[in-house]
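Changelog excerpt

This revision adds worked examples to the README so contributors can see how folded entries look when concatenated. The first example is reproduced verbatim below.
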Amino acid sequence: MLADLRQLATAEAFGDLLETASHLDEGYNVPAVAVAVAGAVLESSLRILAKAKNVTWAGASGISKINTALYTANVYDKVVHGESRRGANSATVDHGVFAQPADVDAGAVARMVGGVRDFVARFR
C-alpha cells in the first residue's frame, strides 16, 4: 500500500512539473527550459518503472540507457521504446546554447511535454 501511495504522490508531482513545463513553453521563458523539465520527468519515470520491474542496467544511467533496458526486458513494446527515445532526443535540446527563444521549435516542445504526460499516465 505504501508503494501505491508513493506512486500516487510521484505521479502528482510529475503532473505538476509537466504543467510547469507546458506553461514555460507558452512564451514565459525559453522553450528549452520546458524541455529540460519534461526530460527530467521522463528520466525519473523511467527509473521508477525500472525499479518497480526489477530492471537493471550497467554503468551510468540516462534516459536512453534506461529506456533500452526496459524495452530489452519486455516491459513495453517497440512503439513505446521509440516514443521514449524521441523524448530522450528532445531532452538533449536543453544542453544546447540558444541565442533566442525562437531557436527552439515550440510545437516540438509541446509534443514532447504531451508525450511525457502520456507515458507517465500509462506506466505509473
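The second example, added in the same revision:
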Amino acid sequence: MKSITDRAGSIQSFNLVEVDLTIFKKPDVVSIKATGQGGPIFELDSPGRDNNRKWEGKVGLGAFLGLTVTFGEHEDKK
C-alpha cells in the first residue's frame, strides 16, 4: 500500500534471534524440530502525505514459531 502514497521511502530493520531445537529424533525414521524467532522491529518513514509531512519512527516486537517434521532422514554411515 505504501507504493500508492507520495512517501519518498521507508526503512525497516529486523533484529531477530533464532533458536532451533530438536524435539524428537529416531534415526532413519523421523525427526521433529522446533524453530523460534523473536526480537525488535524498527521502521523509519520519510515525510509524506500520510504522516503529516514529518519524519516518523516506529518500534515493535516480532515473533515466529515453526515446527518441522522430516520422515525418512538418512545419514551417510562411514
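Reviewer comment on example two: Residues 18 and 37 are 4 Å apart (CA to CA). The chain has one domain: 2-71.
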